């Protein structure tokens, strides 16, 4: 199925008669990408479900104000990223967890999750990712899993390309050290 | 061959291109990291491990649409202007003025401040209603009261002068 262009979605959305159709097209095109983007950050499916819905409701309410000075998908990603980071910070505050302590609770969630059936290696990778600070993990996810360009990640996060490259490089070194810790080779 | 020699003669060695500082020192490390990433992708496919409930994305679409497109708009109550025509507006203003003017007029009619003469007439009327003999007795009584008191004073004075010496009067004071 041919994916519709963002410009077409925006054009249809600007017309009141075709607005609903435009939003349906947008949902079809982006809901899975945004779901997985959020899921890799917050781990739990139910939390992800709530956040994804919040993101698309915000998109619906604000799309007519969207200025085309950035790409549509980077704008949606930005909303999803902000919602996820805000959620994680609130969760830590609610449970009196220090903001710099990242791995413990999410790792527990991952291990206990009914919606994770990966093998030992996949579990190890996810645990390795959870040792990274939230923002570093976010950058790694977007580069590694979403295969976004540094310029696109820069638009989403507001961080310079140079800083992103440095952050990603550090993240890779940490994950490499974690993965090789038990002499697991592949 | 001649071209090659001409090139080497005119553009020896340096190309003019430069690299960032410490580029080659960091390059090896970056290549190793890139190789590691590629190996990881091959052995641990992205998003393998995470699962979803059945038909999740269909349900997600319905849930989002219910909160956006399908959300019922707030019913707006129809507003009917009270004065939808100029004629009605002016007629209402005229009626109001008429009623207010009539009210003021009748209010003035009911309340009349009594003139001074009327107060005097009323006083006279009250006196007229009292019996004459009563009035005369009252006047005589007030006059005799005054006379009586002066007579009493004179008698007292004579008594004191006749019965007390000057010396007694001085010591008494």
Which descriptors would you attach to this protein?
heterodimer, A: 186 residues, mainly alpha, Rna Polymerase Sigma Factor, Chain: A, 9 helices, globular, B: 173 residues, 7 helices
Number of strands of chain B: 0
Uncertain segments of chain A of ≥5 residues (pLDDT<50)?
A: none
Main beta sheet strand tally, sense and closure of chain B: none
Q: Main interface pair?
A: A-B, 37 and 29 residues
Distance between the termini of chain B: 164 Å
User: Which class of secondary structure composition applies to the elements of chain B?
Assistant: mainly alpha
Identify the quaternary structure here. heterodimer
The count of strands of chain A amounts to 0
Q: Cα distance, first to last residue of chain A?
A: 36 Å
Task: Please mark out the parts of chain B with pLDDT under 50 across 5 or more consecutive residues, or reply none.
Answer: none
> Residue-averaged pLDDT of chain A, rounded?
88
Instruction: Work out the helicity level of chain B.
Output: 55-70%
CATH architecture of chain A: Orthogonal Bundle
Q: Strand percentage of chain B, roughly? A: under 5%
CATH uppermost class of chain A = Mainly Alpha
The secondary-structure class of chain A comes to mainly alpha
- Number of H/I helices of chain B: 7
How many separate helices of chain A? 9
N-to-C series of helices and strands of chain A: HHHHHHHHH
Describe, in plain words, how this protein is organized in 3D:
The complex is a heterodimer of chains A (186) and B (173). By secondary structure, chain A is mainly alpha-helical. Chain A has one domain (6-179): RNA polymerase sigma factor, region 2, helix turn helix motif (Rna Polymerase Sigma Factor, Chain: A, Orthogonal Bundle). Chain A is built from 9 helices and no strands. Chain B is mostly helical and 173 residues long. Chain B has a domain at 20-67. The radius of gyration of chain B is 63 Å and the shape is elongated. Chains A and B meet through helix 2, helix 3, helix 6 and helix 9 of A and helix 2 and helix 3 of B.
């Amino acid at each position: 199925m041919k994916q519709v262009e963002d410009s077409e979605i925006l054009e249809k959305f600007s017309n009141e008669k075709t607005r609903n159709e435009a939003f349906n097209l947008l949902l079809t095109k982006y809901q899975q990408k945004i779901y997985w983007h959020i899921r890799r950050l917050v781990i739990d499916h139910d939390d992800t479900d709530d956040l994804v819905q919040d993101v698309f409701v915000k998109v619906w309410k604000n799309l007519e104000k969207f200025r085309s000075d950035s790409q549509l998908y980077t704008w949606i990603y930005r909303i999803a990223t902000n919602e996820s980071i805000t959620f994680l910070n609130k969760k830590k505050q609610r449970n009196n967890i220090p903001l710099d302590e990242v791995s413990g609770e999410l790792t527990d969630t991952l291990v206990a999750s009914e919606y994770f059936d990966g093998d030992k290696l996949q579990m190890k990778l996810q645990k390795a990712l959870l040792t990274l600070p939230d923002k570093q993990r976010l950058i790694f996810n977007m580069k590694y899993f979403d295969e976004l360009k540094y310029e696109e990640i820069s638009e989403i996060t507001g961080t310079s390309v140079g800083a992103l490259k440095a952050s990603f490089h550090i993240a890779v070194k940490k994950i490499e050290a974690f993965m090789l810790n038990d002499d697991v080779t592949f | 061959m001649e071209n090659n020699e001409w090139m080497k003669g005119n553009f020896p060695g340096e190309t003019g291109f430069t690299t960032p500082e410490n580029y080659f020192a960091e390059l090896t490390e970056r290549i190793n990291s890139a190789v590691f990433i590629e190996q990881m992708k091959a052995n641990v496919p992205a998003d393998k491990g995470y699962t979803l409930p059945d038909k999740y994305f269909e349900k997600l679409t319905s849930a989002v649409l219910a909160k956006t497109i399908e959300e019922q708009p707030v019913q707006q109550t129809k507003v009917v202007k009270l004065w939808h025509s100029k004629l009605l507006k002016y007629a209402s203003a005229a009626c109001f003025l008429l009623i207010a003017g009539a009210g003021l007029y009748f209010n003035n009619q009911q309340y009349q401040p009594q003139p001074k003469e009327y107060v005097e007439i009323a006083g006279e009327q009250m006196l007229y209603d009292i019996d004459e003999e009563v009035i005369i007795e009252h006047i005589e009584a007030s006059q005799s009261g005054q006379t009586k008191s002066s007579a009493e004073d004179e008698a007292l004075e004579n008594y004191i002068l006749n019965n007390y010496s000057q010396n007694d009067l001085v010591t008494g004071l």
